Amino acid sequence: QLVASGEFRADLYFRLNVVEITLPPLRHRQQDIAELAQFFIEQFAKRYGVEQPRLAYDAMRQMQQYDWPGNIRELENVLERAVMLCKQSIIEFDDLLLRPFSQNDNSEKVLPEIEKMTMDQVEKYLLESALNRSSGNVSRAARQLGLTRMAMRYRMEKYKL
Question: DSSP per residue over 28-76, as a string?
Answer without folding.
Answer: G-HHHHHHHHHHHHHHHHHHHT---PEEPHHHHHHHHHS--TTHHHHHH
